[in-house]
Design goal:
This protein has 130 residues and is an alpha+beta fold. The chain has one domain. It has 3 helices and 4 strands, in the order H-H-E-E-E-E-H. It has a 4-stranded antiparallel β-sheet with strand order 3-2-1-4, with helices on one face. A hairpin with a 5-residue loop joins strand 2 and strand 3. The two termini are 14 Å apart.
Length: 130
């Protein structure tokens, strides 16, 4: 049985760290905002666990693009964004389009994705074994 979003969120909170965020942001990562810079890898792992689509949008500050943001659209159409709380008040997520996942694994940040995936899947298995 698939985990509910809050259970899944708990597993990601335990799995996120400076070694699973975007490498260029590793020095700024903090447990105070654990979801920061974890969106791409998180969305891929959520898709591995729950299926559905990846959604990609832009992040703007004062009307200028400063980055991208990923989240999931589940098979039932529900949107799930486990990293939505990472944003600062001045940051705005704009748009959102379904994107096709690379056929094998992400071209960028593969190491972070594989580490996060291993941690989350192991944690879910441990939960199932209780």
């Amino acid at each position: 049985m698939a985990p509910d979003p809050e259970t899944l969120r708990r597993h990601f909170l335990a799995a996120w760290g400076p070694d699973t965020c975007y490498p260029s942001e590793r020095e700024q990562w903090s447990p105070v905002n654990p979801a920061r810079d974890q969106c791409g890898m998180t969305a891929l792992v959520v898709q591995d666990v729950l299926g559905g689509d990846l959604v990609l949008a832009e992040v703007h500050v004062d009307g200028s693009k400063v980055g991208h943001h990923y989240w999931n659209r589940l098979p039932d159409g529900t949107e799930l964004d486990l990293t939505a709380d990472q944003f600062r008040p001045e940051e705005e997520v704009v748009g959102g389009e379904v994107v096709v996942r690379p056929p094998d694994a992400p071209r960028y940040h593969r190491e972070q994705y594989e580490l996060l995936r291993a941690r989350v899947l192991a944690s879910l298995e441990e939960d199932d074994g209780r």
